[in-house]
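Contributing: when you submit paired examples, paste them exactly as shown. First protein:
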Amino acid sequence: MGILSENVVTELRKRLAGLKGPVKLIVFTQDMECQFCQAARELVEQVATLSEKFSVTVYDFLKDTEKVNAYGIDKIPAIVVEGKMDSGIRFFGLPSGYEFGSLLEAANIVSRNNAMLSPETLEILSPLDRLVHIQVFVTPTCPYCPIVVKVALRFAFAKEQIRADMVETTMFPHLANRYAVLSVPKVVINETFSFEGVLPEKQFAEQVMRAVQGG
């Protein structure tokens, strides 16, 4: 029996029937699987059985150093969602609870090859000419976190300069401490700029540009 219940699987098959193009799910774990690594791998493997559009590749964090470096993976479990190319979409930790929907949204974005952002938002991001790293700290019980994660993922897909990470706070307490994550969602941009709470995508994009311009 998989992680997902039979009822959930039935509903997901219907939802995933709308996928258009191929979706690569790339999992980073290790032989002696870390806490939550097995659950993350099994979740991805079960999801991949629900649509012929999915493919799964599993890499060892300690052995597959070339891939680890290529994808910029510095902690596990990690999941990369990739379409025709790597769009900088990363999940660190187990995307469970409300964040499972974020994983499905990432698959939808890359499959449809569409960031689904408003023209106004794209215009705000258009001058971006340097690398941006967005980390969204979440918990699986936070109903507002996926709203922020999904926007960050869309930014990453729309702009090759952006990488967006979902970071499950309870699985990486040292990072929660490092970035003073006292409530979620918390967004950290390029290590030093941050904000808490939910912003509409246009205001979120403005914060990204503000961070790039030095705050």
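Second protein:
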Amino acid sequence: MTEQPDLTPAAPMPALYLGHGAPPTLDDPVWMGQLNGWAAGLPKPRSILIVSAHWQTAPMAISATRPVPLVYDFYGFPQRYYEMTYDAPVAPDMAATVKALMPASEPVMDRDSRGLDHGAWVPLKAMYPDADVPVLQLSMPDLDPQHLFEVGRRLAPLRDEGVLIIGSGFMTHGLPFIREYFMGKPGAPDWSIDFDQWAAEALNRGDLDTLFAFREKAPGMPYAHPTVEHFAPLFVTLGAVARPEDRPDYAIEGFAYGLSKRSFTTR
């Protein structure tokens, strides 16, 4: 019998935080190119664990480990977006590992009919269009930054097994306040620019305490995040890395529809 090569990366996989956009992201050649080029510059993961802004349950849950339809959790878009597919392999082995990494006080439930939501499949369709990497989605148990950071710390050993951990949200997400930008106005509102700059500076300093207190300390609040679920996955990403105080590598910057696309790699 021919021995199969060990495909586990020599170094741990990075962890990412990204702005996942919306289905029209897949028609935006600039944003599509940024996501695709970013993935091409990373080691090829053996599998992907993604935490999306669009799934919060208590206790935590994992998506289906059998093929099921995607979740089309958006409205008002052309019909073709509701017909898109992303048939990535499932990841039952990783599901078992994720459960084992969590303490008995925080069991992880199975959601056998739950497919990937657009916070997962939209960016992955851009980054790994061949859908050849197994994917598992994990819900957020709450929106507490320190708790989510601890969840990330418990997931960190997956990186040694070739798993790419992704927190998928949006650096700013003030949807009620961007109508003119959605209609084509260039640039971004001051609250979006101010929050983005504040977050980048805190990340560059590795200032976790400041980031944890973003609701009180960040300029642009609450306009930047009237609800905070799109910023929350960032803390899973930071928890999953060995040195969250290190400056991240910004793969994508700038604004779309007035919202910050800032996305980064951490190790």
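If you have annotations for the second protein, write them as plain sentences, like these:
Strands lie at 15-19, 47-52, 61-62, 109-110, 135-137, 163-169, 249-252, 255-256, 259-260, 263-266.
The two ends are 37 Å apart (CA to CA).
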